[in-house]
Specification:
By secondary structure, the chain is of the alpha+beta class. Helix content is about 45%, strand content about 15%. It contains 21 helices and 16 strands. It has helices spanning about 15-20, 30-35, 65, 75-80, 85-95, 135-160, 170-175, 180, 190-195, 210-220, 230-235, 235-240, 245-250, 250-260, 375-410, 420-450, 455-460, 460-485, 500-505, 510, 515-530, and strands at about 1-5, 10, 25, 35, 40-45, 50, 95-100, 270, 285-290, 295-305, 315-320, 325-330, 335-340, 350-360, 410, 415. The strands form five sheets. It has a five-stranded mixed sheet with strand order 3-7-6-5-4. Strands 9-10-14-13 form a four-stranded antiparallel sheet, with no helix packed on it. A hairpin with a 2-residue loop joins strand 4 and strand 5 (about 40-45). The radius of gyration is 26 Å and the shape is elongated.
């Protein structure tokens, strides 16, 4: 078990646990007050006593700030300057005792624990009723949250700043645990992989009981930790790149590629966008010409801003054939070159420029019919946009939780920040916008659970597009208000404002990827117009 710290290191959680269960001496507050000099420096945080005599000169903020509170209760000062993870990091080394006859007032949650902060979790996890969720969803989220905190977060802490790609070991652990399978929706591939011993599903969920709400939860938990770049390094390309394979690929291709990817042994991405073609997919220029014997395509062209492309093994690629736009699965091979693109994300997300130079691809790698690529792309867009909504909503919920905590612990003019009406108004605006789009999103997920893939493509393109438009507008508002609540800390990559800074730097990805806000708004209304009855008049 591990917990991340405010810096760039991780500590074994078991070390922290041992400090909590260790037998400590008890002191009175009067005892602590006697140790109030630079050479004999004790402080109290909550009901714990720390001897910081040897630490004072190593303190990043200098010894003076510690000397100021020597012999005193420094709880308020500590939480005004540090995240709780700092306390967890140093507790095993510097805690010497507790205050006699006092119980702790501040909770340090164990891994996998649900937050008790208002609106920090979806309402069903805060003891409200729901028509959508059941016991398996509770079990599923609990298993995923514990897995992420124990296995994923330690690597996220280091990689978010260093830009290092997710390790193969992590990808395969996530595959074995069923994370990748959980993020591509219900379907026969789940049973196929479980039967083959490739994976199990989190929480002991059976393939036949897995639904889109389980998948929604999987996307939410992936974005619940405040490491946005690393979150997208973990299968953003898989979520949008693999569905074209199992929905439109030939059987032999599916049987080979799907188990490889869902086990974490291979990685995949979606390659549609080009330097001259974004939302206007019809303008792509990457070509695929058949060889004279008709057995292969020769692919030439450039793709740009492709998430996870730098380390992908497979590329679900939009190409232009003699019969129009088609989709091909291209395996990394001779002629495929990927180059890192520097963006506001960390390099660990693997955003790339991809060059295809006379790449030879078997015709059996066609996804759908030749010339039918636009249909494949449009079918896939619904799921991609729905996935983006799940991720952005969860990331925004974490930002609101952080803002709520800060507003309660920060003191200004002698009062908690939340005592200011303007701050309460900002929180009210953030929460009401979040809960509105989350409830709409859940309704769409429920429709997905009760529609075939083709029915979803027909009936949900407009609602999903409008929900995405509302979701990314909500994210803009949440980011803006959170920055105002945390002030300068929201512009600082480490410390108390780390989560807010990461969100305000990266939330626009959701506004652009999968279709820009303007395109989403227009698409939603154009789809609605198709259902407008001619007889309807004022």
């Amino acid at each position: 078990l591990w917990l991340h710290t405010a810096g760039k290191t991780t500590i074994p959680f078991l070390t922290y646990v041992s400090s909590m269960t260790k037998e400590y001496k008890t002191y009175s507050r009067e005892d602590v007050a006697k140790h109030n000099t630079p050479k004999d420096l004790w402080i109290i945080i909550d009901n714990d006593v720390f001897d910081l005599t040897t630490f004072a000169d190593m303190h990043p903020g200098g010894a003076y700030s510690l000397v100021e509170v020597a012999g005193q209760d420094a709880t308020e000062q500590f939480y005004g300057l540090h995240r709780q993870e700092v306390l967890i990091k140093y507790m095993p080394k510097f805690k010497i005792g507790t205050i006699a006859n006092e119980q702790p007032k501040i909770e340090i949650p164990a891994p996998g624990t649900l937050s008790k902060v208002p609106y920090a979790e979806p309402s069903y996890w805060l003891n409200f009723k729901s028509a959508y969720y059941k016991e398996s969803h509770l079990r599923f989220r609990a298993a995923l949250r514990k897995f992420y905190q124990e296995v994923v977060v330690p690597e996220a802490v280091a990689s978010e700043d260093s830009g290092k790609n997710p390790s193969s070991e992590l990808f395969q652990k996530m595959g074995k645990f069923g994370v990748w399978a959980s993020r591509v929706g219900p379907g026969p591939w789940l049973q196929m992989c479980v039967d083959a011993g490739v994976l199990t599903l989190p929480g002991g969920i059976k393939p036949e009981e897995f639904d889109y709400f389980h998948e929604q939860i999987a996307h939410e938990e992936n974005h619940a930790w405040g490491y946005p770049s690393f979150a997208d390094s973990l299968g953003a390309g898989l979520v949008i790149g693999l569905p074209p394979v199992f929905n439109f690929g030939p059987d032999a291709l599916r049987m080979k590629v799907v188990p490889e990817v869902l086990s974490g042994k291979k990685r995949i991405c979606l390659a549609i966008t080009e330097p001259t073609a974004g939302s206007d997919v019809a303008r792509i220029r990457t070509t695929a010409q058949r060889t004279p014997d008709g057995k292969h395509f020769i692919v030439n062209g450039i793709k740009k801003w492709i998430t996870n492309g730098t380390y992908a093994d497979y590329f679900s690629t939009a190409v232009l054939t003699e019969n129009g736009i088609s989709m091909l699965l291209i395996e990394r091979s001779e002629g495929v070159e990927t180059t890192q693109i520097k963006t506001s994300y960390s390099a660990c997300a693997g955003t790339s420029l991809i060059t295809f130079d006379n790449v030879k691809v078997p015709v059996e790698n066609l996804l759908g019919k030749e010339g039918g690529g636009f249909q494949v792309i449009m079918f896939n867009f619904n799921h991609e946009r729905w996935y983006i909504n799940s991720s952005v909503i969860r990331a925004a919920r974490l930002v609101i939780e952080e803002s709520f905590k800060w507003a309660n612990q920060r003191k200004v003019f002698g009062k908690p920040l939340i005592a200011q009406p303007v701050i309460r108004n900002k929180l009210a605006t953030m929460i009401s916008q979040l809960e509105s789009v989350h409830n709409w999103h859940e309704n769409i997920t429920y429709q997905m659970c009760n529609m075939t893939y083709k029915e979803q493509a027909k009936h949900l393109a407009g609602p999903i597009a409008l929900c995405k438009f509302a979701t990314t507008r909500m994210a803009t508002l949440v980011s803006d208000n959170a920055c105002q609540i945390l002030g300068g800390r929201a512009l600082t990559k480490t410390g108390l404002g780390r989560v807010i800074e990461g969100f305000q730097r990266t939330f626009k990805y959701g506004s652009i990827l999968g279709g820009s806000e303007e395109i989403m708004a227009d698409l939603g209304i154009r789809m609605a117009i198709k259902g407008m009855p001619p007889s309807a008049k004022l």
